[in-house]
Structure formats: structure tokens, C-alpha cells
Write a structure and sequence with these properties.
alpha/beta; 2 domains; about 350 residues; Rossmann fold; eight-stranded mixed β-sheet; three-stranded antiparallel β-sheet; about 35% helix
Length: about 350
């Protein structure tokens, strides 16, 4: 969701007709050939051009990892910070400069391991930042250790006999932290990735976009079931606001309510008609159905891509700004010095 002021600013900027090239830096892109990060970067340039916020009003913050090199390739303000702290720094930046559009770039290791605490609290606070979570289920930069999203049994450099842990599911963390915006895409689904990035930027509050990304060196094919052309139609469902939840090669399958759960059916068989198929509504405050959709794994039920949840709520930086102005007006403070000297509890060190 977006308030009227932000919408007006976006429309005014859009009239300037920024092009994707306006957001590209002159740095040569240094990721492995075939890495999914290349596609995500190119789509981000296009999404920013469509959003229309000027490069000078945009900041891209990252932590440490392969994906965290992205700020170098942006002609915007950028911060390549420290491992796991991108959300904390992005929060501080947005609170100090609420006029900026702030993007956070994190991998599954950077964002959900050492940065997991900052991730859930940024979502809980509903700070107006756009978090792009690149999920390749591996540590790429440090050469192939398993990550918090690696599947149980995954054989990696740090788990040569297979992991003995269950992974985090990013959507589950977002919903557990009372998140108001969650979307998902795949690195090869360029149109969908652009669609969810634009929606994330227009949402007022913390937005999380999980992008399933392929690491060609250390985890090649980890998302093959949902990225291969031959299997994608049967294993993914693209959710669109106000539309029936249909999927399949010919959109012949749909999701229906089955007690308290969801069920995939073939329309026209076993007594199911198109009227039984659920209609997607990302904006309803109740998150139970949104969570069910986000938790589908692409096996028994198709993996949901697109905007899954987009609910309006109070944002952290606006509430902080209102609070500061309220106290300042009541107390008469003009600056920090006035506030300090207004109390009788002061002393002089000689």
C-alpha cells in the first residue's frame, strides 16, 4: 500500500521518465557467469525506472555475500556494510531520512543466519524498507557451506555427509514476525520479479521479496523443480490480486478450500467447478490463508509466486517522526542542546 504523498512523489518522478540505464553504475558486474544475480540486478534497474523514484532519492544497503555486491552496480546511494547488519543500517537510514526510498539486499546466509535477529525485528517494526532476499540455499561467497535455508540432507563443503537440520522457510519467519508484505519470485521469471519489486516499493512498510536464485557453482539446480520450463507450470502458481488461483499448463488446475487446509484439484473433475476455485486477496488483514499460500512447497501443492500478502499498517519511521514532533512541540525543544539544558539534572565537569 502507498499513502497519497508517496504516490504523488512517485507520479511526479515518473513524469521525468527515468530509464533503467539511469540506475546503472559504471562498475563492471563481477558475479559468476550464469549466476542468477545478473537477472535480478537487471530487473531491479527496470523496476526502479517504472517506480520512478530518482536515483538521488534512492539508497541500496547490503551486508556481506555474493548478493551484497549489488550496491556497486547501482547509480544510487549505496552502502556495502557488515555481515548480517544490513537490516539494522537500513532501519537507521530510513528513520533518519524517511524521504529516501531504501532497498536492502541480503542473501539467505547474510539475512537469516547472523542477520536473522535484525531481519525479524525490521519486519516486526514495519520499517518502510524493501528487503530483497536472494535465496540460493547455500553460502556462495565463502565457497559452499550450507546455509539456514539448505534442505535437510544437503551435501555441501561443511556437511559432506548431509545436513542434519531442517531449514528456515523465509515466509514462515515473515509471518511469525507479523509481516504485512511478502512476495516471492524466481530469478528466471523476469516479469514476475519486476512485478513484485514494484509492488514492494509501493507498499508502505516493511516489504520482503524472496527470490529463489540459482548458484551455478555450489548449488546448481537447487530450484530446478520450479525453474525448469518443463516442470514450472505444474509446480508453481502465480497469484494475482482478484484473480482465481489457477495453475497448470493450460490453467486447468486450481486451489480450493479443503476443511482448514488447501487442496489442488482439476477443474471439471471430481465435481469441482471454476466456482470452487479460490480468488486471491492479498489485502485482507487476516493472515491465515496468506500463510498457507506462502508455505506451499511446490510438491503436494504448487509453490506460490507473486504478491502473497500486501496489507496496510502503521510504519515505524512515520510513527517515530510523529512522536518526535509531538514531544518537541510540547516541550519547546528546538535541538538536542535545548533538551539537555532543560533538565535540572545537569552538572559541570571541571
Amino acid at each position: 500500500m502507498v499513502n497519497s504523498k508517496d504516490k504523488s512523489d512517485m507520479e511526479n518522478n515518473a513524469e521525468k521518465r527515468f530509464a533503467p540505464a539511469d540506475y546503472k553504475s559504471e562498475q563492471s558486474v563481477r558475479w559468476c557467469p550464469g549466476c542468477g544475480d545478473h537477472a535480478i540486478l537487471n530487473v531491479l534497474h527496470k523496476a526502479m525506472a517504472e517506480i520512478g523514484v530518482a536515483p538521488k532519492d534512492t539508497a541500496v544497503v547490503s551486508g556481506i555475500g555474493c548478493s551484497s555486491r549489488l550496491p556497486y552496480y547501482m547509480n544510487t546511494y549505496g552502502m556495502h556494510t557488515i555481515h548480517g547488519r544490513a537490516a539494522a543500517i537500513a532501519t537507521g537510514l530510513k528513520t533518519a531520512r524517511p524521504d529516501l526510498t531504501v532497498w536492502q539486499i541480503s542473501g539467505d546466509g547474510d539475512g537469516l543466519a547472523i542477520g536473522g535477529n535484525h531481519f525479524i525485528h525490521a519486519v516486526r517494526r514495519n520499517i518502510d524498507i524493501n528487503i530483497l532476499l536472494f535465496n540460493n540455499k547455500i553460502y556462495g561467497l565463502t565457497k559452499g557451506q550450507y546455509s539456514p535455508t539448505s534442505d535437510r540432507g544437503a551435501v555441501t563443503k561443511s556437511s559432506p555427509y548431509g545436513t542434519t537440520e531442517d531449514p528456515f522457510i523465509p515466509a514462515e519467519l515473515v509471518f511469525g514476525a507479523r509481516g504485512n508484505f511478502f512476495a516471492r519470485s524466481i530469478d528466471i521469471a523476469l516479469d514476475t520479479t519486476k512485478e513484485v519489486m514494484v509492488a514492494a516499493a509501493r507498499h508502505k512498510g516493511a516489504s520482503v521479496v524472496e527470490i529463489r536464485q540459482n548458484c551455478v557453482i555450489f548449488n546448481q539446480g537447487s530450484h530446478a523443480a520450479i525453474s525448469d520450463k518443463e516442470r514450472r507450470a505444474e509446480h508453481t502458481i502465480h497469484l494475482r490480486q482478484g484473480e482465481k488461483m489457477l495453475f497448470g499448463e493450460n490453467m486447468e488446475k486450481g486451489l480450493v478450500q479443503d476443511g482448514f487446509g488447501l487442496k489442488a484439484v482439476t477443474v471439471g473433475q471430481d465435481g469441482y467447478t471454476i466456482d470452487d476455485v479460490l480468488v486471491h486477496d492479498a489485502t485482507t488483514p487476516t493472515n491465515f490463508l496468506h500463510q498457507q499460500l506462502a508455505m506451499m512447497d511446490g510438491d503436494t501443492l504448487p509453490l506460490a509466486i507473486g504478491v502473497i500478502r500486501d496489507v496496510e499498517a502503521l510504519s515505524y519511521e512515520e510513527e517515530v517522526e510523529h512522536q518526535v514532533e509531538s514531544v518537541r512541540s510540547k516541550k519547546g525543544y528546538k535541538n538536542l542542546r535545548d533538551m539537555i539544558l532543560s533538565t535540572s539534572e545537569t552538572w559541570t565537569v571541571e
